[in-house]
Amino acid sequence: MSALVTLDNLTVSYRRHPALHHVSGEFAAGSLTAVVGPNGAGKSTLLKSIAGLLPAAGVMLGLPRQQLAYLPQQSELDRSFPLDVRDCVLLGLWRRSGAFGSATTTMLRDVDAALHTVGLQGFERRPVGTLSSGQLQRVLFARLLVQDAQLILLDEPFNAVDANTTATLLGLVQQWHAQGRTVVAVLHDDAQVHTHFPNTLLLARELVAWGHTAQVLTPANLQRARAMAEAWDEQAPWCEADAPAAAPLLQTAS
Ligand SMILES: Nc1ncnc2c1ncn2[C@@H]1O[C@H](COP(=O)(O)OP(=O)(O)OP(=O)(O)O)[C@@H](O)[C@H]1O
């Protein structure tokens, strides 16, 4: 299968300390991959780099960026924004409506169909700030549904979500995979990864293993990832690959 996303010696640093260090490999078109690793392993940094939110020179996309959808961790979302559920899902249609375009009847029908799919019919006019975590995650998946992207990046999509909602959302992930879309999800539940994700990328700032899930999530690899994470030293020398300081908080190098 051809590569949809290629990582070529990807190094991303904050204050010159690498959060990702010399990571190389490929996400094949149509693949379904879990990204796992200890806290602070660089998983969110990897997704943000692929999404183009960090200036990462080592990421090559085999599709236009408009074909990419990114779901951040809920903790990164501003829920106080005055938006109702229907308008929140409508944002997923910006490619069809344009930044300031108005919604057509067809678009509103698609939005309501997506809300029905995630079990939230009747919630159209609810302010998003009043939703539970699980309900908000269903709304955000409805937005992904209407966005209709070929590459879908999910950062801890089932965090703080109950078993029932997780099953519904996992069903959508399986559906996207069956449709030939490429899905990459940061997850912490190894059993869930074993059951639902054919491929896994195990990170501990550096790449520990990447391939078929059963061959990646071995006790030896997991132990190695833990040891690498524990060995991390905030005072370690700067990575020689880092670019000279250009911005105070965030730099990247390949
Ligand atoms: N904006 C930032 N400024 C400085 N350091 C950062 C920033 N974002 C992340 N880091 C650091 O980069 C490292 C990797 O963070 P990242 O969030 O990518 O890890 P993660 O694997 O997603 O962690 P978790 O499982 O806890 O969500 C951590 O040491 C973190 O403290």
From TrEMBL:
Listed InterPro entries: AAA+_ATPase, ABC_transporter-like_ATP-bd, ABC_transporter-like_CS, Metal_Ion_Import_ABC, P-loop_NTPase
The keyword Nucleotide-binding is assigned to this record: yes
Entry keywords, A to Z: ATP-binding, Cell membrane, Membrane, Nucleotide-binding, Transport
Keyword Oxidoreductase annotated: no
Cross-referenced CDD domains: ABC_Metallic_Cations (cd03235)
PROSITE patterns, sorted: ABC_TRANSPORTER_1, ABC_TRANSPORTER_2
Annotated GO MF terms: ATP binding
Residue ranges annotated for the ABC transporter domain, each copy included: 5-230
Family affiliation: Belongs to the ABC transporter superfamily.
Protein name (Swiss-Prot/TrEMBL): Zinc/manganese transport system ATP-binding protein
Natural source organism: Rhodoferax saidenbachensis
